[in-house]
């Protein structure tokens, strides 16, 4: 067995209570994810893995830190964001449990486990900033220019709660309506 996500467990196999920790970095040999954003081929994942020997097999848990990239789902600006993925799974000894993962030849291969967790953690609707206004439907120009720190005008504290609500909607219409009211 080999591969960038394969770890040896020979020294803790069938020794419940034993535990090993591994920290390592993997450079992805292919893209992970098919959506608007993905983990790019050639990008790095920093893994922090704990292997615990239990009666049924090896309990694998840990985190993977990487970066996804792609486009804002509203305005198509290229974005890159850090992502931290958590995973945990039992790798059972062969023939002992019905599981998706098994200890094989005194090794565990974490690739499928980490990959599935990473792809699931990618946002379905990635945005360049929470209040991105997207593109002008007539001109196709990007409506948002600066980052979320901008404030066009001082906001009356009494309106700030409402402002937060409308920011969550992220629509230009709700902001315009609020301005007329205030
Ligand atoms: Zn955007």
TrEMBL record:
Polar residues bias: start-end ranges: 161-171
A matching Pfam family: YceD
UniProt cross-references to InterPro entries, sorted A to Z: YceD (IPR003772)
Chain spans, region Disordered: 143-182
Protein name: DUF177 domain-containing protein
């Amino acid at each position: 067995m080999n591969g960038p996500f394969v770890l040896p467990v020979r020294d803790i196999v069938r020794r419940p209570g034993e535990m090993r920790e591994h920290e390592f970095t993997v450079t992805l040999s292919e893209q992970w994810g098919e959506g608007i954003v993905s983990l790019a081929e050639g990008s790095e994942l920093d893994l922090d893995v704990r292997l615990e020997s239990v009666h049924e097999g090896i309990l694998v848990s840990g985190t993977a830190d990487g970066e996804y990239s792609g486009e804002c789902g509203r305005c198509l600006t290229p974005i890159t964001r850090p992502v931290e993925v958590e995973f945990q799974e039992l790798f059972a000894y062969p023939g002992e449990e019905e599981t998706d993962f098994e200890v094989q030849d005194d090794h565990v291969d974490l690739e499928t486990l980490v990959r599935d967790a990473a792809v699931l953690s990618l946002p379905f609707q990635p945005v360049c900033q929470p209040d991105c206004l997207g593109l002008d439907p007539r001109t196709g120009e990007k409506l948002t220019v600066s980052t979320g720190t901008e404030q066009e005008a001082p906001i009356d504290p009494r309106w700030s709660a409402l402002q937060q609500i409308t920011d969550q909607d992220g629509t230009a219409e709700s902001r315009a309506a609020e301005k007329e009211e205030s």
